[in-house]
Amino acid sequence: MIKVNLVMKAFVATAVVTTCAAGCTAGPESSSTTANVPMTGGGEPISFLAMDDHKVYGELYSDHKPDTKKCVLMFHQARSNAGEYETIAPKVKALGFDCIAIDQRSGGEMWGRHNQTADKSGSGDYVAAYNDTVGAMKYAQGRSYTTIVIWGSSYSAALALRLASENKDVSAVLVFSPGEYMDDQATVGRWAAGVNQPVFFACTPDEWSDGREKLFGQIVSTHKVSLSLAGGVHGSSTLIPEKSKVADQYMAKAIEFLKGIK
What is the model's pLDDT at position 39? Predict the structure, then answer.
């Protein structure tokens, strides 16, 4: 198992406000206004095979330094694509991480972009998209990273908890608006109960009071951080200033967490 040094204490920072700011979405299938933020593509195109040999497309953000041993795998929300991370990945890369943002087969045309995996290889549901996250993990391992962090948004945040629970080579996890999005409404909680790695858990105040507090409590890791701020929005979109009033605050806490991962 890869060793991780977390140079921070676990804390919980949750807002007392329970009403959601305008633009917040409650779940992965809720309507979203994020599609009107155009993203043109900022990473190097890559592709690899999913666990079931489905071809997956994505983007690599890297300085191609031979001594870079850390990476973050970035998974998007429903109806989305790798463009969700176009403004986020460069900030994470500046910390010394390569970033790999993928198009899962369950996605669509947000950010003014197409989801290449769905378009070229065929679409699938959330459960099928888990194969894409496993493929991304194997792709990262093949590049000889010694620290592999996974980052999920909405339904893929739930899948990130599964990936961490089933793969001890995952060094740490960042999840934005995870929830019980599977048919069995206890599934994600069971995955959370198997996560021992450091976890950064973010959501909106209304999401926190509508099941996420319970889900956070089911994560067994002793190094876990919860953040819920009024003015945020659903998923990783809460880190995009055009969509979230508190994007900079969420980003600052995510950066603080990542700085503790060695």
Answer: 59
